[in-house]
């Protein structure tokens, strides 16, 4: 899986994560939206799941749900 993130986004992720003491990174997952298919979700990650794929970008940990 390829993921590109701009420097501006990395700065924003850092700023947002600093205000979330329980967050260990970000999580990308999907949600079924019925007839329309799926939506991607970006949220704070509070724990690591065994099947997560870890992507490190700079000092940001991004955990990707295996279904993505």
Task: Name some characteristics of this structure.
alpha+beta; globular; 1 helix; 4-stranded mixed beta sheet; Hypothetical Protein Aq_1857, Chain: A; 68 residues
What can you see in these coordinates?
By secondary structure, this protein is of the alpha+beta class. It has a single domain, classed as HesB-like domain (Hypothetical Protein Aq_1857, Chain: A, Sandwich), CATH 2.60.300. About 20% of the residues lie in helices and about 40% in strands. The protein contains one helix and four strands; from the N terminus they run H-E-E-E-E. It has a four-stranded mixed sheet with strand order 2-1-4-3. A hairpin with a 2-residue loop joins strand 3 and strand 4. The longest helix is centred in the N-terminal third of the chain and has 12 residues, at about 5-20. The radius of gyration is 13 Å and the shape is globular. The mean pLDDT is about 95.
List the helices and strands and how they pair.
Blueprint: H1 7-18, E1 25-32, E2 38-45, E3 53-57, E4 60-64
Helix content: 10-25%
What's the mean pLDDT score?
A: 93
Proportion of strand residues: 35-45%
Structural class: alpha+beta
Short description:
With 68 residues, this protein is of the alpha+beta class. It has 1 helix and 4 strands.
């Amino acid at each position: 899986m390829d993921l590109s993130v701009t420097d501006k986004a990395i700065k924003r992720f850092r700023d947002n994560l600093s205000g979330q003491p329980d967050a260990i990174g970000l999580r990308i997952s999907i949600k079924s939206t019925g007839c329309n298919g799926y939506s991607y979700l970006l949220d704070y990650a509070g724990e690591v799941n065994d099947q997560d794929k870890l992507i490190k970008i700079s000092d940001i940990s991004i955990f990707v749900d295996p279904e993505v």
